[in-house]
């Protein structure tokens, strides 16, 4: 469960909260009981290569069909309205 900390306490204990977040903990910061921010751990900095994503989509599409319906029929059907 995510811990909630008041804004004043967050400001007072920011260094401790940053250390906890760096270890993987997520902390919700509230003002008068209303969530206003979330302190989360950093991402690993890795981004998926666009070429790998495109290849993954192509692999996912292999073998997928529309049955007896063509793309043109779907386009024309959508233009009726």
Q: Count the E strands.
A: 3
CATH architecture call = 3-Layer(aba) Sandwich
> What is the CA-CA span between the terminal residues?
48 Å
Computed Rg = 24 Å
In this structure, how is the largest beta sheet organized?
A: 3 strands, mixed
Task: Just give the CATH class.
Answer: Alpha Beta
Shape field:
elongated
Strand order of the largest sheet: 1-2-3
User: Strand content of the residues, in percent?
Assistant: 15-25%
Poorly predicted residue ranges: none
Question: What is the element string, with H for helices and E for strands?
Answer: EHHEEHH
The CATH superfamily is known as YefM-like domain
Number of helices: 4
Average pLDDT score: 88
Oligomer: single chain
CATH topology: YefM-like fold
